[in-house]
Amino acid sequence: MTILALHDLTKSFGRQVVLDHLDWTVSEPAIIALVAPNGSGKTTLLDIIANLGRPDSGSVTVLDRPNTDQSIYTDMTYMQSNETLFANMTGQDHIDLIQRSYGVPADRVEATVAAFGIGQFLTKKVKTYSLGMKQLLLIVLALLPQPQLVMLDEPINGLDPKAVQALRNALLALHQAGSTVIFSSHDLAEVDRLTDDVLFLTKGRLVAASSLAPATTYTVVLKDAAFLRTILPADQVTLLTPTKATVALPTEAMQALRQRLAGTDHELLDVTTSRQGTEALYFQLFGQHEIA
Ligand SMILES: Nc1ncnc2c1ncn2[C@@H]1O[C@H](COP(=O)(O)OP(=O)(O)OP(=O)(O)O)[C@@H](O)[C@H]1O
């Protein structure tokens, strides 16, 4: 089954091109983070996938159906901004609505409400909620139906560390049960905790973080770490201590380096790998202070 297929999507607002012949396919359940600077089009893209916004051209398939087919909402939920909540209704009213519409079992409602610790304010009207309380309610509403595809627009915004942990656990559990999660976020440390599957929206197209990081960062230990600077380009070597450095190299080049130094005074005594973090890739792609 194709979970999501985006084909040749374009969208402009006036002269601003937000989506530019964008193609993407998701065919395996995954937790996917959508990352880009403010105003790049993340919400526009999620809205279009959910058929709440129209592309200028192109098509979207959700769970093997065109997204114009209303039946996709049985299997897909979308957490938008808190403006979608009803100010004069209580949290419980919102939950009842979702429970009835999706036939959510009572024990799942109870467990989800408990996991996110929102029980104590459900009897209050939403207009009295703080930003974090609204976020928690929105998250619970999106996750309750246990959809095959859930899209969350900036779910981490305004959450305290305990709530972030509850969200992380809930998303991992959903994924383990076979669902796909797509969420946008500016919290790149949290993104790295949740998933390796990061998509950058840049110049109207999606680029996988994995395609940007052909080099792996290795931490190496040797007698004289500065020696590495004499045999490798300077920008590939960062000295950490006199005997420790990080080296960014493709895997084969690292193997060749190890062989070359084996048995010499500069033998690599220890080598550990670490993948390049999303923040480093973000700055590589978008530079500093750039607004798309
Ligand atoms: N209805 C609209 N009319 C005109 N311009 C719009 C409209 N909706 C979005 N835009 C513009 O499209 C661009 C993308 O907006 P969008 O909200 O999708 O970005 P985003 O990546 O979600 O941003 P953020 O991270 O700040 O939430 C912005 O420049 C925004 O001003």
Mean pLDDT score: 92
The first-to-last residue Cα distance is: 34 Å
Q: Supply the number of helical segments.
A: 10
What is the number of beta strands? 14
Strand numbers in spatial order across the main sheet:
6-7-8-3-9-10
Q: How big a fraction of the residues is strand?
A: 25-35%
**CATH level 1 class label of the largest domain:** Alpha Beta
Q: Give the helix proportion (percent range).
A: 25-40%
CATH architecture of the largest domain: 3-Layer(aba) Sandwich
Q: Structural class, please?
A: alpha/beta
Low-confidence stretches: none
CATH homologous superfamily classification of the largest domain: P-loop containing nucleotide triphosphate hydrolases
**Bound small-molecule species:** adenosine-5'-triphosphate
Give the number of domains.
Answer: 2
Which word captures the global form? elongated
Order of helices and strands: EEEHEEEHHHEHEHEEHEHEEHEH
The value of Rg in angstroms is: 23 Å
Largest sheet: 6 strands, mixed
Q: From the 3D structure, determine the CATH topology of the largest domain.
A: Rossmann fold
Keywords: ATP-binding, Nucleotide-binding, Transport
GO molecular function, one term: ATP hydrolysis activity
Domain ABC transporter: 4-228
InterPro entries: AAA+_ATPase, ABC_transporter-like_ATP-bd, ABC_transporter-like_CS, ABC_Transporter_VariousFunc, P-loop_NTPase
Task: Describe the protein.
This protein is α/β, with parallel strands linked by helices and 292 residues long. It has helices spanning 42-49, 91-102, 106-115, 131-143, 161-176, 188-194, 209-212, 228-231, 251-261, 278-286, and strands at residues 4-13, 16-26, 31-35, 57-62, 65-66, 76-79, 149-153, 180-184, 198-202, 205-208, 216-221, 237-241, 244-249, 270-274. The longest helix has 16 residues, at 161-176. The radius of gyration is 23 Å and the shape is elongated. The model has no long low-confidence stretch (mean pLDDT 92). Adenosine-5'-triphosphate binds at residues 13, 16, 18, 36, 38-44. GO terms for molecular function: ATP binding; ATP hydrolysis activity.
